[in-house]
Amino acid sequence: MGGVALMLYREAGDFKTSYVADGQTFPIAFDRYRYYAVLVVALAIIPLFINDYYVNAVFLPFLIYSIAAIGLNILTGYCGQVSLGTGGFMAVGAYACYKLMTAYPDVNILFHVLAGGIVTACVGILFGLPSLRIKGFYLAVATLAAQFFLVWLFNRVPWFYNYSASGQISAPERTLLGMAVTGPNADAWLRYLFCLIFLIGVAWIARNLTRGTTGRTWMAIRDMDIAAEIIGVNPLRAKLSAFAVSSFFIGIAGALFFSVYLGAVEVGEVFGIQKSFLVLFMIIIGGLGSIFGSLAGAAFLVLLPVLLKNILVGGLGWPTDLAAHLEFVIIGALIIFFLIVEPHGLAQLWRLAKEKLRLWPFPH
Amino acid sequence: MKLKLATATLTGLLMATPVLADLVFPSLSYRTGPYAAGGIPFADGYADYFTLLNERDGGIGGVPARVLECETGYNTEKGVECYESTKGEGALVYQPLSTGITYQLIPKATADGIPLHTMGYGRTSAANGKIFSNVFNYPANYWDGASITVNYLLEQNGGSLDGKKIALIYHNSAYGKEPIRTLEKLSEKHGYEFTAIAVDHPGQEQKSQWLQIRRERPDYVVMWGWGVMNQVAVQEAANIRFPMENFIGNWWAGSENDVIPAGAAADGYKSLNMHNIGADFPIYDDLKTHVFDAGKAAGSGDQTGTVLYNRGLYAAMLAAEAAKKAQEIHGVEEITAAMMRDGMEALEITEETMAELGMPNFGPAFAVSCENHGGSGQAKVQQWDATAKTWNVVTDWIDSDKSVIDPLVEEDSQAFAAENNIAEGCS
Fold first, then answer.
1. Chain segment B183-214, per-residue pLDDT in tens
2. Which domains does chain B have, with CATH numbers?
3. Around Cβ A161, how many Cβ atoms within 10 Å?
4. Which of A166, A173, A270 is the mutation pick for testing B, counting most B CBs within 10 A?
5. Nearest residue of B to residue A259 by CA position?
6. A78 within 8 A of A222, measured Cβ to Cβ
7. How many CB pairs under 8 A join A and B?
8. So what's the ipTM on this one?
9. Is residue A223 a contact partner of residue A216, using CB atoms and an 8 Å limit?
10. CB distance from B21 to chain A under 8 Å?
């Protein structure tokens, strides 16, 4: 099987006759078919077999963290602006979605989520303004301030949580074309598809932005902002557009996280500083400046703990505390291992593997 | 891709466990993280009680009980994973020991028809069984706790708190915010001045809060804390020389773990408790014979007789009694979650039942009904003796002020019903 796949994975005979064909995302035919196959499986086959466990413990966290990681990757990976405010921005998306869901119960949930993203984009631009003057670690500290301020705000001002006694926000049932997407009665397959379509949309937009003019200006700013300015890149526009797009995606992730995945959220616990770090780790492990890296990083940090738990507790019958401690050790060791073997992340490992496959069986 | 790979592996792993004829009691415990000090003894007590029932009586009504433990680390995302991974095994009742996870599970468990017992935590207004059909928080809830504290202080001050200052130091989360509204209402009624001071998760840093307390000089400090926050607060109170006998924690801020680190300085600290303390109960003899000496104790077996271990026993006892009730009502031994719910709703704990179970006067006597899922709403006050390293109960059961709490419960539960389109039951 391996041999056959290797034989298929090559460029020979795969001719391009136009500029457009040459610039496509998956220039190698095998890659392209694999991509279509993944889409078919994800869109048409998984929904048929998905159950509550898979959707709540595996797919929803993976899909939603992937959206957040793509968002942060736009800002940090492509535009070079380090942000520790991801948790806070996700909270903006979640609370905007909550306020809209409760204020306009008859509107389709799809629009609430998108509106949550748009509100977050505006907040993101506001907190992106300091990036015009400060860089690197100093910007990280400024976004850290955003993180703490936003969490404090949602804890402090009762209007945001509709004056509930406990300060918790809970997602009531909202529908899409008459079918429940949020709330306890939503079907597993629909919640899965709802988030999946957002992920596909976000990844598609991100891919097309990053290979066009916008993405090139971001990367110019990332690689050397002074040089970029000299060749005519407007730093104001580049940085703020990166903040806006990034926050838009992160806001969508936050809105989905609250409304579709958890259903009830407490801002300090769910959108605290540890969430900002988690998403940052995802893109560092997955690969800065790579869409696939965002997905790989999210998969690594979301799915691996669940997998380990199932092996250690479910499979081997170990005590739960021992397994939980060992999980930290294993994941920590793997992170160190991957970063030593490939500092550019899982995406780079994947890229190298493909490079080697193309040359197989005649490496240099 | 990675996703498919992971899915395939996961599917393989999850197909294993066969369905056995037993009564499944999931224990969403936390033996790791900043709240582990509270999670471990509770989980041990919960598991040991069911081990005792299996070893001594062959289970409940002849059907063995199985405790399915799942580590949440007090984290809501892991809580969701735990809920989903255990509910398919025939889970009868969930006790997440976390207010955050409770809020998530209320709609989910209700839709799945599985009851939720949040003993002295969770959503207070779930006491209204007309709205929250599947959620129970007997024997007492947070607002009872707040009111009991005030009633205790009233008694200490000869019936009047006029002009007194009471500060609440609380965990800045759903859990900690719960008593605020009640304490505000009671301050209108009794004329004390009320300040609420928040401590952010996990609560290791409280210098500024205690500076504020030192500046404002409240007569009493009430605490709604959990985990590491409690020990830090007791230590900080000692540092500013706040009189310990005027510092009262709720029932989640009154275990040995909270006071031992401060040493002698913690002497005199008070807290509420919803059950009795110590190992001086006949059930401990049975536990010793059938569980501890047989080497079947959960965890490392070093938590026996502590406040939170007893709470775990108490929670398990209430669950087992409800299961017995359900077996009795429906006339079958292998009950389902829906039958368990009926059992919980018909639960009646009397002095005689507790004595029969080897736990005389362990908790309050109370009865649950369709309308009232909140129990009797009583608690005792206990005080720490640092030299003997023991808690001593200093009062009898204190009642809460239902005339204040009932309208609050009604108001909050109606708001929930309106938001989620729930029709009132029990008619």
1. 999 999 999 999 999 998 888 899 999 999 99
2. 22-141+277-377+408-420 (3.40.50.2300), 142-274+379-402 (3.40.50.2300)
3. 24
4. A166
5. B104
6. yes
7. 151
8. 0.87
9. no
10. no
